[in-house]
Design a protein that fits this description.
It is built from 15 helices and 7 strands. With 344 residues, it is an alpha+beta fold. The radius of gyration is 24 Å and the shape is elongated. Strands 1, 2, 3, 4, 5, 6 and 7 form a 7-stranded mixed β-sheet that branches. Helix 1 crosses helix 11 and helix 2 packs across helix 3. 43% of the residues lie in helices and 15% in strands. The structure holds iron/sulfur cluster. Iron/sulfur cluster binds next to helix 9 and helix 12.
């Protein structure tokens, strides 16, 4: 097992008391607020997540409120954050928490891990930050700090390495203030020891950090080579009929599950092919104009999109035909379509 410096907590906690940022989820700490914030922060920058978090808490302040909301309301609150499976899992888990735990998150990391969307990291974060239990939460930030502290020669992408650091950290939890210790490790990784060049001079761990002693701490963590993303061409349609725009719901499973989107097909259609497609849908196209190219990057996939705006002479009911007000209130359209949404 990796050997982490002995007095991590003694060095980190005083630093955290002076340097921890004032973030919305650190005020009024409750298991529900910690849970929602951790799920939001999994794929979203802190700055971007703050407003979403406050809006979410305003609309759905308790687990019971989240459980009772309909899915479209939850997805609408998540609109623009991406990785929508997170929101759907939150919603499913909230229902289970109401059913099985009377609306209170269980103070037990095993029971937490059994809920949809909660893995080792999130269970550790909730258990330690909300319930003050000695449960490590090992995310990319914490792994980077650990890898630099120990000059770890193995790839941190390897689950076994992650598990080893989790166990090594478990030995370093203090008897009190477990939540502050978890938050301090995350905070250090985000602010002082980020990817790229760390600020070892400003780090409370400099004297005990093997990476800093080498003079080139940025050599860690060791990473696996990334697989290149798959590129997919898509053609996106802004179909207009009598001041309304067509949307269609994505399937229940897979990429952007359950979200509403502008009709689109695979391939890079030219004007003639785009007209044929609109006609095949039963839109009786009367005119067509280009509305630009755009790219959206998912984790393993890139969409390279071409857009066509089509004036329709018919409104087939394979689509729903929406006003701007309805789209704003009810239909969550993912940010993959941002370049075209802005033109509606
Ligand atoms: S001393 Fe430098 S490399 Fe080590 S944990 Fe601190 S910032 Fe990171």
């Amino acid at each position: 097992m990796e050997k982490l410096p002995k007095d991590l907590a003694g060095l980190l906690l005083p630093w955290y008391d002076g340097h921890g940022r004032d973030l919305p989820w650190r005020r009024d700490v409750t298991p529900y607020r910690v849970w929602v914030s951790e799920i939001m922060l999994q794929q979203t920058r802190i700055e971007a997540a703050k407003d979403y978090f406050l809006r979410f808490m305003d609309a759905l302040p308790t687990v019971a409120d989240l459980a009772a909301a309909d899915e479209q309301t939850v997805l609408k609150l998540w609109e623009g954050l991406g990785y929508y499976a997170r929101a759907r899992n939150l919603h499913r888990a909230a229902k289970l928490i109401v059913e099985n735990y009377g609306g209170e998150l269980p103070a037990d990391s095993k029971a937490l891990r059994a809920l949809p969307g909660i893995g080792d990291y999130t269970a550790g974060a909730i258990a330690s930050i909300a319930f003050d239990l000695p449960e490590p939460a090992v995310d990319g930030n914490v792994l980077r700090v650990c890898a630099r502290l120990t000059c770890c020669p193995d790839s941190v992408g390897d689950q076994k390495v992650k598990n080893r650091f989790r166990e090594a950290l478990r030995q370093r939890y203090p008897a009190e203030r477990c939540g502050a210790f978890t938050s301090a490790l995350m905070e250090l990784g985000e602010t002082v020891c980020p990817p790229g060049t760390p600020d070892c001079g400003g780090c409370p761990l400099e004297k005990v950090c093997a990476g800093a002693q080498t003079g080139h701490p940025a050599d860690w963590p060791v990473m696996d080579e990334k697989r290149p993303r798959k590129i997919q061409n898509r053609t996106v349609f802004i179909l207009e009929y009598a001041g309304r725009v067509a949307l269609i719901q994505r399937p229940d499973r897979g990429l952007l599950a359950g979200m509403w989107e502008l009709p689109n097909v695979e391939g890079d259609l030219d004007e003639t092919a785009a007209l044929c497609q609109a006609d095949a849908w039963g839109c009786a196209p009367e005119g067509l104009a280009p509305c630009g190219r755009a790219t959206h990057i998912f984790t393993h996939l890139e969409w390279h999109m071409t857009g066509w705006r089509v004036q329709c002479g018919a409104a087939p009911d394979r689509f729903i035909w929406t006003t701007a007000k309805e789209r704003a209130a009810r239909y969550p359209v993912p940010s993959a379509f941002r370049a075209y949404k802005e033109q509606l």
